[in-house]
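> run fold Xanthine dehydrogenase YagS FAD-binding subunit
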Amino acid sequence: MKTFDYARADSVEAATRAGGRFIAGGTNLLDLMKLQVETPEKLVDISRLDLNTIEEREDGGLTIGALVPNSDLAADPRVIAKYEVLSRALLAGASGQLRNKATTGGNLLQRTRCYYFYDTAAGCNKRQPGSGCEAIGGFNRIHAILGTSDQCIATHPGDMPVAMRALDAVIVTQKADGDKRRVPIGDFYRLPGDTPHIENVLEAGELITHVELPAPTVGRHLYRKVRDRASYAFALFSVAAVVTVEDGIITAAALAFGGVAHLPWRNPAVEAALVGKAPSDETFNAAADALLDGATGFGTNDFKIPLARRTLIASLREVTQ
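> ok
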């Protein structure tokens, strides 16, 4: 690990003006620093800021502080009762020890687990722009099948952000000049395009302070994660679903997907294929067709396409029972 300066912020304003990389739990950043994938010159410790509470909103939703640990968020009775898909997604991620340290804001900013991103001897446009993407034509079993470019086929590794995408979460930030903004999670992440190293819309010094969840909707919640082992593994494919069935007809559906794209994936065409239809294999196959329209494998990840179809159909059968 290379040497770096360290500062502890005593306010959000001080943190945004400090001119360094923010660190709280450090469950991802410290690993990257040890491997010299990331070499920040300065770390700004935000772990003692007053951003670790969960508060109810007037509209019935929740405001979640960026420093709320994943374990606390998953165990909160209001989250379990109203946003079960979020609690399930959090418990599907990492290990208990890591969930105790990992924060809400940090979870949103996890970086890819691409083998070549972690190998500083390999070409990786996300780590070093212009160096190429060795995953294309290489071993790409865990890589994306949707939203890729000829510059990058990495996937977003998170579980929590997939559930938050299905819940239409809003990310609240504060900039170095004091301005605050609210960014819908669907607008927060960027596809790789020609600049895979730019992963989200945050500006230099901009800090995530809260996440807002809108009032919950009536419906059944499900989070299903397919992975290589039962725990402490990233998704090969995951589904976050909130679906409402009334009088034998699907009246509302919100679905997001992990393990298949550079960001938590959501396609309105999938939901449009479901709403207004009776639950059936024909309906579910139409939703899978919409999801996988344009999906492309790169060799060792070709299996993800039929895996995504089977998992989505099985998940829809369960959530519409």
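The chain has a mean pLDDT of 97.
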